[in-house]
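#structure-requests
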Amino acid sequence: MTATDPSLTALAQGWCALSLLHGRIETHIERALQAGHGLSVREYSLLDVLSRQHDGDGGHLQMKQVADAVVLSQSATTRLVTRLEDRGLLERYLCPTDRRGIYTNVTEDGLKLLEQARPTNRTALREALDEAAQNPDIAPLVRVIETLKSPVPA
């Protein structure tokens, strides 16, 4: 294979289209969440992931699982948790069965903010996808996204 191989070129073009679509969606949602709720996309994602925890077996995520779910490094996730904890939106506590483990829960204020932000997130996502569907280079990706039925496992 050479750098001018048509299959590599098509693959690179597909990757560029996907990257472009992701960037446009994230930027649109970021603006909406910041303007309406003072949240970044990452902060919203973290609150959303942590709000889905439960008290049953395997119901609480370890920091590595949280990092994987929000697509950040563990250190970046820890910094993000600290920022949201400082704002009173999250709280940390020791795992009752393993004193080495630290869990993070969304506070009542965090849950309220998340519930207020969810419609903004959904609307901004829909707007970004509708706008992207107008671009013939990325419209096929929009159609694929719209056919997905379940979240991709972390």
